[in-house]
Design brief:
heterodimer, A: alpha/beta, 3 domains, two-stranded antiparallel sheet, B: alpha/beta, Rossmann fold, five-stranded mixed sheet, four-stranded mixed sheet, globular
Chain lengths: 404, 324
């Protein structure tokens, strides 16, 4: 009885018992049919055509974004080679997912923070991370912004408001919510974008992050890169839900499902979600349906668990080919111009690699102790001296077994 | 000067810092309108509003995870974990995110915050309202760990912790939350992190304690004095940074050390203290370094008097060490 009175109070007034505003029950959806309620939104047709009334990506951004997608792909392919050659220790990329990564980042405002998972190197480059700096991170060398503290592909880039990457899954989700919440408290026009894979939706932090954001209508855009696989586990083994977008309903927020290989669709969904968040209408969960064309990382061999027949249909849906078809359809790109872009990108990567590899292979010894605390405690100071003296006494201290 | 208990001193520190710095926000379960289950945040919601005194949903990982984002974006969050026993769902955020954020970004970002939490037993709380998890956090580089024993220190240390550029775990001794009273200056003052306090000078045995166990140790050293053993008692106050010089100075003087903590013995912080004393004071030692601690069991309900390293057990250890 008490509960009924309480709920009727809430329904009537749209406020909680303390007078604070709640999402009215009438706006909360009832039982639903996911495929109907969350249709796969597309802007780009298979033939490259598009309903331009549905696309607000400025025309002058199309070629730069196409070039970035090509760069992102070429970078991934080259870095996988480098890892096979033993020049870098590890790589994790986004082959096949470039439209999701770049379309979402492009849909945000420049002041918005990005909380990445670990496949969004393209977004860091979009935000101004110099390619050579990214390569220094992969090498962990003297030019590494992370001072050799993190393994490859865990970059942070403060000037681009690109947060730091960690390997544990989904931890960045509540962090993005906190940043959006802080921006609202400070009355800043800042909406964080947070990326995560569909595997992350199984983790605690996905639930707490979306729940906190829903309850408090925090301005934040959640982008779920549904690439079909969490290492060896297919999406059907992550959730019994028909879509990932529908999970938004239970958190009292808007859910969207878009073709993640369609740059224009991802951009459009993100742009609109950003606008709603900035207008105080709360967060959005966007499921970008894409496909992980390669292994999870260079440490993985997908042939063990994934038949090639599953991958082949996605080759036709390649996001770069899709955008190229559109650019051709709009008369913005010819085959020779495309070839010139690809050559320029390869040369850019080669030049950046030369620049990065010219630097000393390790940061200085004291960097091992930098940044544990704002100022080192006596333990870091003592241990640095201990290490210095050990290296001086026996240089093998500075080499792992098998290293030159 | 007003006489406050530990809860009131914590409340005073929070209020003082929130008035001084608009970026300080308090968040957690029941901390808002209700003022916290121990009343540590009482009145803050009325004074500073719901934006700065935030009732969160019930998820410790979410509390700390969102605090990370707030700290990155320039707020100074002071999340409360209702009982230290409930901090473990937030371990991933604390150990892998909060502690490493500055280091892993090469100093590009930092996430300073103070995670407050009542800890410790002696309140009939059983396994899940009694634990002392400080060693987990001291073992994680990047975190600072502070444990006050009295109202004056609680206020001064909490103010310092909130102003500190690094993340701080601030464990409050709930067993003496109301029992420990003392004069607390009005307005702001800081007690630097990493300074132990010699609360009793003596020449025969050094006793190291912190938090609620300082009170047990204090009683034990008084009883020891009556029995003719002259102890020096240190309240460590901060476990990381640790005032190793104060410990070294004292043990080199006395040649004997008794370490008291209520967490289980194995890999408790006493093990680290014992190793440090052995490394630094080896030639001064006159007796084995002795630990009086909780036992290697989960925290018990009925036999908690027996479990806790209270004054009689500490006194017994002091006498054995003195007579060695």
């Amino acid at each position: 009885m008490r509960r009924e009175i309480h709920e009727s109070f809430v329904r009537r007034n749209g406020h909680d018992v303390h007078g604070e505003e709640l999402t009215p029950f009438s706006q909360r959806p009832a039982a639903h049919r996911p495929e109907k309620e969350f249709p796969l939104e597309r802007v780009l047709a298979d033939d490259g055509s598009a309903d331009l009334a549905r696309s607000h990506l400025p025309q002058e951004r199309l070629l730069p974004l196409y070039r970035l997608m090509v760069l992102n792909r070429a970078l991934d392919e080259r870095m996988i080679q480098l890892q096979r050659q033993g020049r870098i220790g590890f790589y994790i990329g986004s082959i096949g997912e470039e439209a999701t990564v770049l379309g979402a980042a492009e849909g945000m405002a420049p002041q918005d923070w990005i909380f990445p998972c670990y496949r969004e190197h393209g977004a860091a480059i979009l935000r101004g991370l110099p390619l050579a700096k990214f390569l220094c991170d992969l090498l962990g060398n003297a030019g590494d912004l992370m001072e050799g503290h993190q393994m490859p592909c865990h970059e942070a880039f403060r000037p681009g408001r690109f947060a730091s990457i960690s390997s544990p899954i989904a931890t960045q989700i509540p962090q993005a919510v906190g940043a959006g919440w802080a921006a609202r408290i400070k009355k800043d026009d800042m909406v964080p974008l947070v990326y995560f894979g569909e595997g992350a939706t199984s983790a605690n932090d996905f639930h707490t992050g979306l729940n906190f954001a829903g309850v408090r209508k925090v301005p934040v855009v959640f982008v779920c890169r549904n690439n079909g696989w969490a290492i060896s586990v297919p999406r059907e083994r992550q959730t019994a839900a028909v879509t990932f977008a529908e999970k938004a309903l239970a958190y009292g927020m808007k859910g969207e499902r878009v073709d993640g290989n369609d740059l224009l669709a991802v951009y459009e969904a993100t742009r609109l979600a950003r606008a709603r968040a900035a207008a105080g209408e709360g967060p959005t969960l966007i499921e970008c349906v894409t496909y992980r064309m390669e292994g999870h990382s260079t440490s993985d061999d997908p042939r063990v668990y994934r038949p090639a027949e599953l991958v082949d249909p996605w080759r036709k849906k390649d996001p770069i080919l899709r955008l190229k078809g559109h650019l051709v359809w709009r008369g913005l790109l010819s085959e020779s111009e495309d070839a010139a872009i690809r050559d320029a990108v390869a040369a850019e990567i080669q030049a950046a690699l030369r620049e990065a590899e010219a630097l000393p292979s390790k940061p200085p010894l004291e960097s091992l102790f930098d940044g544990v605390y704002a100022q080192p405690l006596w333990q870091q100071r003592e241990q640095l001296e201990e290490l210095r003296s050990a290296v001086a006494a026996d240089p093998r201290v500075a080499r792992l077994r098998g290293e030159g | 000067m007003p006489v406050l208990n530990v809860i009131q001193a914590v409340n005073d520190a929070l209020r003082t810092e929130m008035r001084r710095d608009p970026s300080v926000v308090v968040m957690g379960e029941d901390v808002g309108r209700f003022g916290g289950v121990f009343r540590a945040t009482q009145g803050l919601h009325d004074e500073f509003g719901a934006d700065r005194v935030i009732d969160t949903p019930l998820a410790e990982g979410g509390i700390v995870g969102t605090a990370v984002g707030m700290a990155l974006y320039g707020l100074r969050p002071v999340p409360e974990i209702q009982f230290a026993d409930f901090i473990f769902p937030a371990m991933d955020q604390i150990v892998n995110e909060v502690a490493k954020y500055r280091y892993r970004s090469g100093g590009q970002y930092a996430c300073p915050m103070v995670i407050r939490s009542p800890y410790g037993g002696g309140i009939r709380g059983g396994h899940y309202h009694s634990q002392s998890p400080e060693a987990h956090f001291v073992h994680t580089p990047g975190l600072k760990v502070v444990v006050p024993s009295n109202p004056y220190d609680a206020k001064g240390l909490l103010i310092s912790a909130i102003r500190d550029p690094d993340p701080v775990l601030f464990f409050e001794p709930k067993r003496v939350y109301r029992a420990a009273k003392g004069e607390v200056p009005e307005g702001e003052y800081e007690i630097p992190l990493g300074q132990a306090k010699v609360t009793r000078e003596g020449g025969q045995v050094t006793v190291l304690a912190w938090g609620a166990m300082w009170h047990e140790a204090d009683q034990a050293v008084r009883e020891a004095a009556e029995a003719g053993v002259d102890c020096e008692l240190l309240d460590l106050r901060s476990l990381q940074p640790l005032d190793v010089e104060a410990i070294e100075r004292s043990v080199k003087k006395t040649g004997r050390a008794v370490i008291v903590h209520e967490a289980p013995r194995t890999c408790g912080f006493g093990a680290e203290l014992s190793a440090l004393i052995q490394e630094r004071c080896f030639l001064s030692l006159e007796a084995p370094i002795t630990r009086v601690t909780g036992f290697d069991t989960p925290f018990p309900y009925t036999l908690e008097a027996e479990y806790l390293p209270r004054a009689p057990r500490i006194l017994r250890a002091i006498r054995e060490v003195a007579a060695f």
